[in-house]
Design goal:
single chain, alpha/beta, five-stranded parallel sheet, elongated
Amino acid sequence: MKLKYDRKLLKRAANAVRFFSADAVQKAGSGHPGMPMGMADMAVLLWTHFMTFNPEVPDWIARDRFVLSAGHGSMLLYSMLHLCGYDISLDDIKAFRQWESKTPGHPEYWCVPGVETTTGPLGQGFGNGVGIAIAAKMLAARFNTEDYKLFGEHFVFGIVSDGDLMEGVASEAASIAGHLKLGNIIYIYDDNKITIEGSTGLTFSEDVRGRFEAYGWQVLEAEAYDYEGILKALSEATKEKEKPSLLIARSHLAYGCPNKVDDPSAHGAPIGEEELKAAKKNAGWLEERFYIPPEVRELFARRVAELKEEYKKWEGKFAEWKIKYPELAEEWNRFQRKEIPQNLDDELLNVVQGESNATRKLSGKVIQKLADLVPNFVGGSADLAPSNNTYMKGYDSISPGCFKGRNFHFGIREHGMGAILNGIALYGGFIPFGATFLVFSDYMRPSIRLAALMGIQVIYVFTHDSIFIGEDGPTHQPVEQLASLRLIPNLVVFRPADWFEVAMSWAYAIRRKDGPTAIVLTRQSVPNIEREREIDQEEFFRGAYVVCDSKKDVPDLVIVGTGSELPTAIEVRKLLITKGYDVRVVSIPSVDLFREQAEAYRRRIIPESRSKLIVIEAGVTHCWKGLSDLPTLVIGVDTFGKSAPYKVLAEKFGFESSRIAERVEAFVKGKDRGV
């Protein structure tokens, strides 16, 4: 620490943050004042004595990251960013929780520079921080040299709450962090012992210290208002290199309130005008709203000035490094830009050209090729790599003390994996992927949703995609998961049918930088699709294209197939042609992308008049409603599956081509109403 320790001034700064935050909540008429009031002292000490940052260069790669996992206390973060000179004005603070303000109710990624991740769903920030810490270690392993330690040497600081530690995602992420010996994590546990329903004693009586020590963490303790104790504990945490640190800070919700301290009502609602006045009076504070004493602003200005000098020194060393290590510097530039080969599509197509196999196995070959072509590409599986076909041969695994690798072993921790992937993506440079069975995507849905909300590049590999995984039975046979994923805004979902679609799905996912992509794959083998014409790759990226066309401009029937059901759709077409029907077959590898297309393109693929639409997909049927105004028959699965060989399941669930053709004829004749 460089600033002279001045307890009186620091206490004044803490009160400034405390009441600044409470004023904003009171003005908004909603929010969570209790946590910012309780943790203001801790935040002031952290930001003025430990954290490294530069508000003028908020994306400085060597900055410390601050993760407010207890995102409901967002005004604490906004207050600190405002005082530290980030692009957040007093007017922005006064617009807290209002339409299109920079200060939403929970922190949203980059709503203002300095907000490192979107938090609020408890436990997610905890996991994001673990991913950020891993990415920092990986960056250091790639770019640091013996004489220049410029990368990944920073810390991930965070504030986590009782609620964060109750959520299972935090347990999964904490376990991985301890295993990997992530000494660059320092989390402050806001142990105020209050939840919405009352005391944490209602549900939470575990030994948190013992639990985290068992995970392999260093555990420290300090009263949240004991400045000397806090500074000592944080100093000790920064010296620990082999263990993540958890500082248990005994705090009080709405600290400083004469009547509402430790009152659950202060968690999620303004404390009220009278209580706010009384709290300010007790602290000897002015009643004026949003009051920051000049000496407090000066305190933060001096700290920022110190940090800017540190940044200048780092920048000078960085310039020296680039001159001394030009090849590394060029690699660094490619890394930052996430550069990919211009001929990526052709490279991926060539590795699986014309091959008939399970799409998960085809995907495995594409992943291996991507590992060779895209150095930023990293990822792994939730203990299912042999089944997901995701292990990148010839590359090391991430392990304690070894972060040069490309392969992750997440263990059986889908929820933790999802949150960690988000953290790696948030760090920048890396293109992370994670894999599991499609049915277990449910375990990681909150993390997937947040990746979509933040618009970050994460790739999900979901294999064993339907009832046709067979004998494992309904517990492992996804029925509703595909439709459920398609409902998430900004998540692009692909269900590829063969080698061509697998390669192109991956090409899209690697290029997409503004959101996550899910690639859904079969367990069973699928044939090479015989297309009547060569498909333009850009046509594929529009989500749907014609595989086999009709003779007439407007066909009698349009049959849509996805994934392993596309070959079935082609077989059904052959049967119906013998009955005199004019039939078009359409592949829709991505419903999301197809729905985004202009109406003219959608009508070119699926006409809006004089045809009937048939959809074949081994999943719930309701998601296909509204795809077209045409009379529609959906062949799907609206019940849970059964345990049996997949060919038996195809027969019993009505997916044999002859059976489907019969249903289509009945539909055309009005004997099957469809949907």
